[in-house]
Amino acid sequence: MKYSLRAGGKRVRPALTLAAASLFGGEAGMAAAMPSAVAVEMIHTMSLIHDDLPAMDNDDLRRGLPTNHVVYGEDVAILAGDALLALAFEHVAKATEGVDPRRVVSVLGVLGACVGARGLAGGQVMDLESEGKGDGEVTMETLTWIHTHKTAALLVASAVAGATVAGASDEDVGRLRTFATKIGLAFQIADDVLDVTSSSTVLGKTSGKDEAVNKVTYPRLLGLDGARARAEELVAEAKACLDVYGDKAAVLSELADFIIERRN
């Protein structure tokens, strides 16, 4: 568990949680959201451990290190992922302080939904089913559905968790949902582009995997320039959701820019 959790990474999801909490609750909101920030990184790490398994994407490199199952075996890797998922919920339930219990329960529900059939798991199933299919069989609509669930769902949960514990209104939470969905899709497009244009050394994971398994991606449907343009469009739309908050949302806006400017 520690091996994968401490392996580094961009920590975009916990940063999103804390930025959302800061927007609506300042420093006190960030403090209240820290358990949720830790939890979303645990959930993300679980998803990476399981995603790298031979039964899934069968990868041996993650964050510049051998993947969990390469080091500890498939059996232990599966259990490590399961344990991280359980610990994420336990940590939110036990460590969140000074927050209305109803809001804590709401966060737990949001985290549960983002992992299940209407979130990561459902998106991963559809992603696996799309491998080896032609462009005509996997449409833009299908690809967007896959990554709204597989990629964007946890980013949405991250933003919503931070906003919720900080006392945001339903209207504010709705804006953050839209914002995070759009940057989540932009994140996936950037990933697809980097898989084509970058190296394993820079990425910290095996490059060229999508083409190797004949997976339909945004660059494959739109071309590299078209994919980049779509990512920029999504980020612009996401940032427009924050206009109502003015400069208070500067960190969230910077996170949105980072999504498509990153190199790994």
TrEMBL record:
One example GO MF annotation: prenyltransferase activity
Record GO biological process: isoprenoid biosynthetic process
Pfam families: polyprenyl_synt
Entry GO CC: cytoplasm
CDD domains referenced in this protein's UniProt entry, alphabetically: Trans_IPPS_HT
Cited InterPro entries: Isoprenoid_synthase_dom_sf (IPR008949), Polyprenyl_synt (IPR000092), Polyprenyl_synt_CS (IPR033749), Prenyl_diphosphate_synthase (IPR053378)
Keyword Amino-acid biosynthesis: no
Keywords recorded for this protein, A-Z: Isoprene biosynthesis, Magnesium, Metal-binding, Transferase
Protein family: Belongs to the FPP/GGPP synthase family.
Identification of the protein by name: Geranylgeranyl pyrophosphate synthase
Source organism (scientific name): Porphyra umbilicalis (Purple laver)
